[in-house]
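Crash report, auto-generated. Payload:
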Amino acid sequence: MASGISLKELAAELKLAPSTVSRALNDSYEISEQTKKKVLSMAEKLNYHPNPFARSLRENKSKAIAVIIPERINTFFAQVIDGIEEITQEHGYHLLVYCTHEDVEKEKKIVNLLLNGRADAIVMSVSSQTSDISHLHKLYERGFPILFFDRICSEIPTTKFITNDYQVTLEATRHLIQQGCKRPAFLMLSEDISITKERHRGFLAALKEAGISHNPEFSKVCCQNEETNIEILKNLLIQENRPDGILASVEKLALACYQAVKKTDLKIPTDLKIISFSNMGIAGLLNPSLTTISQPAFSMGEECARILIKKLTKTNQPALANEVVVIPSKITIRASTMVE
Amino acid sequence: MASGISLKELAAELKLAPSTVSRALNDSYEISEQTKKKVLSMAEKLNYHPNPFARSLRENKSKAIAVIIPERINTFFAQVIDGIEEITQEHGYHLLVYCTHEDVEKEKKIVNLLLNGRADAIVMSVSSQTSDISHLHKLYERGFPILFFDRICSEIPTTKFITNDYQVTLEATRHLIQQGCKRPAFLMLSEDISITKERHRGFLAALKEAGISHNPEFSKVCCQNEETNIEILKNLLIQENRPDGILASVEKLALACYQAVKKTDLKIPTDLKIISFSNMGIAGLLNPSLTTISQPAFSMGEECARILIKKLTKTNQPALANEVVVIPSKITIRASTMVE
DNA sequence: AGAAAATACGCAAACGTTTTCGAAATAATA
DNA sequence: TATTATTTCGAAAACGTTTGCGTATTTTCT
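Recovered output after restart:
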């Protein structure tokens, strides 16, 4: 219905064989310039558009890349996708975007759906619930190109993009300590995922370095529910020996923390300093403005896409290298960690 | 490579004809329960996944829906897509997501790419630059299902989802006036697009109602560049007879306004009250917290999807009705419009 | 028991491409 | 001029489904 004329009809109109027309449109050397021109102009005139599915069926390529993210309402992931699209679009690739909402079961369903070849590759950031990775292993075993970013899956030998999680968290925690924090806390969504581990490691290293003994209660695992998190954090903050600094390993938890603080008598940064991983453009407009660790999300997306495109377009390309590409984050100091 | 066994091979394994296997998998009445079970279990065992392109080619359906938005880093659009995905996923549809970055030329390219049938329908919000709508007309003429939301294109007779732009802006402006604003200003990205016109109309109506004569200079058209907008707004705010209230028709401009105010001696809300269309979850955390007009984005996406699914799955469905569905917005009053 | 109807399955075409192979027609070479 | 290359194109198969039609087998009815 929506699709117009077919190659055969175009060929009939030109009194040529479909094979000739196909070759002409694909600029084959076997076709004379003269007929190429004829074909091109007639194709233009009749508004011919090749059927992508016939082509996909024949070529066994979809010209589509699947992107799987844990949440859509998040500046970081949106920027990464913008970066991916920037590069892939130039090469005629389409983006299938899926959101897991941090749900492993949903992630599995999506991955299984993609097993049929609807996409040529997957770029993903795993859900915070993902500990069983059998679905990802299945992909890998079939030789399906996967590429991870941010929330990577270390067990799958492929290319991964992360930021310098350990190092930048170390520096961020040092900053907290430098600003006078004696009892910093670390907020995370899950203990299992890779970046959490690295960031936590950096956090603990800074404490050790400063000779601060860490209260395990201050390494807080939060959940998906905003309200619950606010409650958890409020309870954390109203206890006797409460934390005086917060390092949120994900943006969502820093915001929950702001909300929790509003329910107490505490003041940021006087009573509590906060620093968080976040790519929000408006961190500077928060009350008080939020000190952030921001990843170069857009270029991370671009880099992912470049590697993928190379793998997909060049022939006889080896499997994606088992390497971790580190792109450093940037700490932007704002009011939430100031000494008053 | 990635795709596994084919229907033919599965049939050979079962010593059945491909047609029988196909019918068994599609639960046809022509096949006995016994063989159906055999086929199902063998398909499971051999990990058979039907090739989506062969199916698409045969059925002339892609099982994909294209979503085109002007920007990804925007809570509203992200929520709408979440809503769309929620419904479409249940019905086995995939989402192709494209971002125009408010660029008409990009919008045209994307639309033209979709002319080949890669998607069964388009759900879109037009770019703020879109005044020439020939590319959209072409889609409509071919009978391609299009559905607009928020930034609709009135000239195309199809289903559109918007909020009560006129009414809610009228009320929002009344609120500004009630809070003491004598010289409110209206901020927009473009004069051409539908929602801007409606919102501006509501704004002007409220002024007229209150007997306030409007300075045309206070209906400010901004651009895409953040820095430029901040400059424009700063200049607007430092002049002698500056506005004392702002209604931003899009979130982006409210944020630019906050940035601009930081470069002046003005204080919100004392010297300047601000209300804005926005779906940011953290409007309450801004400094000061921002009074917002928020659209029910998620359910708007869901509604879009429901109508689309109905059109796509039921046979002999008429074209999408030429109607405008209005889903009311909600005003949440916060500190930025308070009287001190 | 014989005819009619219902059940269960196979054959082959079709969807719109690309590509292998082969075959004319023209050009170059001996 | 006869032979060989080169250029330019066509016929047909293939990708993996679905489906119209035909047919063999079984069931039902008179």
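Post-recovery validation: Chain B has a mean pLDDT of 95.
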